[in-house]
Write a structure and sequence with these properties.
Layout: H1 9-16, E1 23-29, H2 36-51, E2 60-66, H3 71-83, E3 88-91, H4 94-103, E4 109-114, E5 133-137, H5 143-154, E6 160-165, H6 171-181, E7 187-192, H7 196-206, E8 212-216, H8 220-224, H9 226-235, E9 240-242, H10 246-249, E10 255-259, H11 261-276, E11 292-297, H12 298-303, H13 310-315, E12 318-320
Parallel strand pairs: 1-2, 1-3, 3-4, 4-5, 6-7, 6-8, 8-9, 9-10, 11-12
Antiparallel strand pairs: 10-11
Helix pairs in contact: 2-11, 3-4, 5-6, 7-9
Length: 321
Amino acid sequence: MALVGGAAAWPIVARAQQGQPIRRIGLLTQYPEGDPIAARNFAAFRQRMRQLGWVEGYNLAIEYRWAAARPDLFRQFAAELVAAQPDVLMASAGSALDPLLQATRTIPIVFTSVLDPVGKGYVEGLARPGGNATGFINFEFSISSKWLDLLKQIAPRVTRVAVVRDPSTGGGQLGAAQAAASSLGIELRPIDSRDPAGIERAITAFAQQPNGGLIETLSVTGQVNRRTIIMLAARHKLPAIFPLRYYVADDGALMSYGPDQVEMWRQTAGYADRVLKGAKPSELAVQAPTKYELVINLKTAKALGLEVPPTLLIAADEVIE
């Protein structure tokens, strides 16, 4: 993926266009550089921006910062991007949005995949954000009950479920799951997703008892450690459901249910376009995803000894053979 070389490169690019004004976007992401999922999402963003008339190297420059879920890098990169004074800042998660808002309350910010921005104090309200940030949330907390229901459908014997979550962001998701667990005859066990070694110890200990399953709530640390979690679920024969499509399609997990990230990034481009044309974030409503996907991996189901019910196959948006 082509990257602009740094903040210092922006005025050089602008001069090279012989008077064509260059608008600048600074993008802070939780992904490590080279992550294929980030590449896919950002490609969708750039494609939609081109459709809206914004072309890199002609009238647009994008400066990327890859924090790899490290708090120190989030703070450092947020300061760097703000110091460069772009026209718009972009945050691809709450962990990116928080340091950007700490660094500036004047530069417009468009965010995506942020959970509970009102509760976190990032915006005053969803309809009227009120500050310098607006964008798109991941989903409602109630999706956690849907994860439990789908897991019970594909693995009826499951009575114990490990909930892998980031304790700093996963409280609402866990609470919604707990509200639904008793009616499904399921006991929940929270597992913190801070580091791979801790995740492995906790899941290995959980798997010592029978009839176990696993849910991963959506978080930055979970996304970074996703392959470890998927590998452990396979090793211990734990039916598992995850929040995003690529866990299944790219990494071989059993099942996912969550927002279409590519579509979210296309919608995010629409907000970036509006801000570049003069719209104020304070007056652009924070929006929820409009499209959710159920994806099932039949090969993984077979390895776990599961027979996927026909009703789930019919409901699935994608079935991986």
